Amino acid sequence: MEPQALFDAVKAKFGDAALELQVTGFRPAFVVVAPASIADIARFLRDDPAMRFDSLMCLSGVDYKDRFAVACHLYSMRHRHAIGLKAYLPKENPLLPSMDAVWPAANFMERETYDLFGIVFEGSKDLRRILLPEDWEGHPLRKDYKYPDFYHGIKV
Amino acid sequence: MKPNVPVEALHTQEMLINMGPQHPSTHGVLRVILRTDGEVVVNARPDVGYLHRGLEKIGERVTYAQFMPFTDRLDYLAAMNCNCAWAWAVENLAGIEVPERAEYIRVIVCELNRISSHLIAFGSFTADMGAFTPFLYSIREREKVNDLFEAACGNRLTYNYARVGGVSADLPQGFLEKTKEFLDYFEPKIDEYNNLISYNKIFVHRLANVAAISADNAVAYGLTGPNLRGSGVSFDLRRDEPYSVYPKLEFDVCVGTGERGVLGDCFDRYMVRINEMRQSVRILRQAVAQIPEGPVLAKVPRVFKPAAGEVYFRSECPRGETGFYIISDGTGNPSRLKIRAGSFVTMNIFETVTRGLMIADIVAVIGSFDIILPEIDR
């Protein structure tokens, strides 16, 4: 399915929640959506017969300096097409509905994004730090992260 | 003698067992927190991250070319595949044309590495199941692949062989002949493995019907590579999202068939790897016959600045799909680099499939997933 047709279908169903289509320079293209409705749109993309994005390839947090984003790369095993799904989040208190009920694969990736970016996924079945120790302070992949001098009294 | 306590009055309690992070069957520093009721696992929760080195953060601070040695440290048993995955991703981002000979060399080293990686998967898995001999056989064959790689790039584990735009050096004289010799030597060995262990009754009993994953679940949980194909899903990026010169090479995609139990059980995942080694031999024979003469490295400046953009590129590594999501802001290094590793996503399904198994089956599940920890923790 062409990205434009896909974007139009999302727009027809969700109206203003579909914000923008990023095509030039983006492979695959990104459908940018309002954060609050990302889980509903994800479910629509998974279940609609023409889309059938049954596989979540990758879910990443991004720090664009002025704002955060969560970028999902979706793939359809049935139709063999791919699309990106993105939501921009504010720097203060970044919140996003969890998608682990749509794709169970999302859980570990959301935990990683929470761990390294501090983006909170509301309604997640299990949101804990995954790669860093549980008592680690800060979120290292943020651009303004300050490296700690000590960890438990040990110089790092 | 009658016990003086009625049996009904005896009660058991659940026990919390810490498996790992230093346990030989966990294939690295994986910690599994087991809640058991007798020998039955109520819940097995994986705890990963012991090898986290912040490779994604490092990636933001080095140039595209400088990141190449770090990809060796993703999946060290398949470093060639990781090298090439990174090179293909960057070339896709920057629109760099690669000489055809270089692409053939990449496919040759990737498939050789797939064989050696599957050999380790096979050897360590059988060792986990209590059969030590096959491990020695697999190491013996792997040495020959390591010798080939040492001739090509000087290293035996962390190769750092691919470059953005090609490979670091042409193959040494006699490499292709040596590769052919290896293939002639290796192909009959696969039957030997099958005779030795694959259809051994005890071995089959340990694996068949254990931790079966349905095709739908495998897709929903994002399994890739042999673990996905073990569930009967015929999907291989080399065939279905072709890259490099794979479209010119003929091979079959091996899938699980439930030949000794339920479709998608540990035995199917094991068997997919055995069969894939045969297909890699097939690919290698064609690639060695077809490889053209020519340059092996395109002219790419040491520091280049791809146009601003975002690319997700994935390729088929022995442990599933390795994807790189690169965001370029037009400077010489990535503004964000996300590594999607097959083993990391695979661990997500671990807690679900191990519920209700015996403790000894946990070892079988870890072995059948063929995870590698540096790729999980990055």
How do the helices and strands line up, and which of them pair or pack?
The complex is a heterodimer of chains A (156) and B (378).
Chain A (H helix, E strand, L loop, with lengths): L2 H12 L3 E5 L3 E2 L2 E4 L4 H10 L7 E9 L4 E8 L6 E8 L5 E3 L8 H12 L2 E3 L27 E2 L2 E2 L1
Parallel strand pairs in A: 3-6, 7-8
Antiparallel strand pairs in A: 1-3, 4-5, 5-6, 9-10
Chain B lengths: L14 E5 L11 E7 L2 E8 L7 H5 L8 H5 L6 H16 L5 H29 L4 H21 L8 E2 L2 E2 L7 H24 L2 H7 L7 H6 L5 H5 L6 H4 L25 H25 L18 E9 L2 E9 L7 E5 L1 H6 L2 H4 L5 H11 L3 H5 L1
Antiparallel strand pairs in B: 1-2, 2-3, 4-5, 6-7, 7-8
Task: Provide structural commentary.
The complex is a heterodimer of chains A (156) and B (378). Chain A is α/β, with parallel strands linked by helices and 156 residues long. Chain A has a single domain, classed as NADH:ubiquinone oxidoreductase Nqo5 subunit (Beta Polymerase, domain 2, 2-Layer Sandwich). Chain A is built from three helices and ten strands. In chain A, the strands form three sheets. A five-stranded mixed beta sheet of chain A has the order 1-3-6-5-4. A two-stranded parallel ribbon of chain A has the order 7-8. Chain A has a two-stranded antiparallel sheet with strand order 9-10. The radius of gyration of chain A is 17 Å and the shape is elongated. The model of chain A has no long low-confidence stretch (mean pLDDT 90). With 378 residues, chain B is an alpha+beta fold. Chain B has one domain (55-339, 364-377): Cytochrome-c3 Hydrogenase, chain B (Orthogonal Bundle). Chain B has a three-stranded antiparallel beta sheet. In chain B, strands 6-7-8 form a three-stranded antiparallel beta sheet. Chain B has a two-stranded antiparallel sheet with strand order 4-5. In chain B, a hairpin with a 2-residue loop joins β2 (31-37) and β3. The radius of gyration of chain B is 22 Å and the shape is globular. Chain A binds chain B through residues 22, 24-28, 30, 54-58, 60, 62-63, 71, 73, 77, 80, 82, 84, 103-105, 107-109, 112, 116, 129-133, 140-141, and chain B through 48-49, 52, 54, 56-57, 92, 217, 219-222, 233, 235, 240-241, 307-314, 321, 323, 325, 327, 336, 338, 340, 344-345, 347-349, 352, 377-378.
